[in-house]
Amino acid sequence: MAALRYRRFLKLCEEWPIDESRRGRDLGAMLRQRVAQAFKEGENTQIQDPEACDQMYGSLSRLSCNYYREKVSCK
């Protein structure tokens, strides 16, 4: 199951753009760094709290696809 979570996070990292003008404070770069830290052993990493991992993925995925921007439209 950790392999599936790892692949989902990798796909999310691929989709998340990196803004070179925001070096040191770019969310995409920070996301890649945190995924690398959390999955040090790649697909073989043992996840301590799978529920929290799934919640974090869901939150980041909704941010990535502009879920909240489209849900709350400005008038």
Automatic annotation (TrEMBL):
<keyword id="KW-0496">Mitochondrion</keyword>
<dbReference type="Pfam" id="PF20180">
    <property type="entry name" value="UQCC2_CBP6"/>
</dbReference>
<protein>
    <recommendedName>
        <fullName>Mitochondrial nucleoid factor 1</fullName>
    </recommendedName>
</protein>
<keyword id="KW-1135">Mitochondrion nucleoid</keyword>
<dbReference type="InterPro" id="IPR037698">
    <property type="entry name" value="UQCC2"/>
</dbReference>
<dbReference type="GO" id="GO:0042645">
    <property type="term" value="C:mitochondrial nucleoid"/>
</dbReference>
<keyword id="KW-0809">Transit peptide</keyword>
<dbReference type="GO" id="GO:0034551">
    <property type="term" value="P:mitochondrial respiratory chain complex III assembly"/>
</dbReference>
